[in-house]
Amino acid sequence: MVRTIGEDGQQIGIIPIKDALKVSQERGLDLVEVSPQVDPPVCRIMDFDKYRYEIKKKERENKKKQSLSKLKEIKIRPNIDRHDYDVKLRHAIDFLTQGFKLRLTLVFRGREMRHQDLGKQTLDRIVDDLKDRSRVDSDYRKLGRRVTVVLSPVSATHRSSKPLCAEEKKNAEA
Fold first, then answer.
1. What are phi and psi of 10, to 5 degrees?
2. What is the distance between the alpha carbons of residues 57 and 167, in angstroms, rounded to a whole number?
3. Are residue 144 and residue 96 in the same domain, yes or no?
4. Which of 104, 126, 108 is nearest to 116 (CA)?
5. CA dihedral in degrees (19, 23, 25, 28; nearest 10)?
6. Which of 9, 132, 147, 155 lies in disulfide reach of 106, CB 3.0 to 4.6 Å?
7. Does 76 lie in the same domain as 59?
8. Based on the number of CB atoms within 10 Å of its own CB, is 12 exposed (0-12), middle (13-18) or buried (19 or more)?
9. How high is the pLDDT of residue 171?
10. In Å, how far from its chain's centre is CA 72?
């Protein structure tokens, strides 16, 4: 004897297991034991393949919602132009407002290695422009021809004001 529940969720009643199997086969569905611990055991008439498909679909949806990469990287050069700098700064602000950590990587090429002080000034400038939106997680690290610094976003309540790009500073002064 099993307590049987139909595909629509309505209770069919307590019937012998052979009758429950017969009913499920007539409807072209499966008889699934839902709760074996209770007396009498509870069985449900359902399309088990469809049920498994829906569970996998929900798992895929949950995976899509997960944020796998929490670290974004922006590469800059020591002699970056003003417009390029402003574009990189806007991207950095976007990443930080979305909640990503940000790795700023300064890349030296060729003879630029002789002028590492210029690269350090460029990196200091971008870190200073982002100081209201971020805090420094790991200080400057030099790895060969690269210098990196990692920034973390600061919550909106801790920000004093939005840092301005060079274009925005000109417009604010005018």
1. -85, 140
2. 47
3. yes
4. 108
5. -170
6. 147
7. no
8. middle
9. 53
10. 11
Which amino acid type is present at position 146? Answer: R
Strand, coil or helix: 84: helix
Residue with tokens 């002028």: 115
Q: What's the domain count of the chain?
A: 2
Residue 56 φ then ψ, to 5°: -65, -35
* Highest-scoring range by mean pLDDT, 6-10, 72-76, 131-135, 156-160: 72-76
Q: Say which DSSP state 98 is in.
A: T
Give the structural domain span for 161.
71-173
pLDDT tens figures, 7-61: 888 888 899 999 999 989 998 999 999 888 998 899 999 999 999 999 999 999 8
Q: Residues 41, 47, 53, 57: is their CA dihedral positive or negative? A: negative
Distance from C-alpha of 29 to C-alpha of 7, rounded to nearest angstrom: 9
What tens digit of pLDDT does each residue of 74-109 get? 999 988 899 999 999 999 999 988 888 899 999 999
Helices (H), 130-163: none
Residues 106 and 31 occupy one common structural domain: no
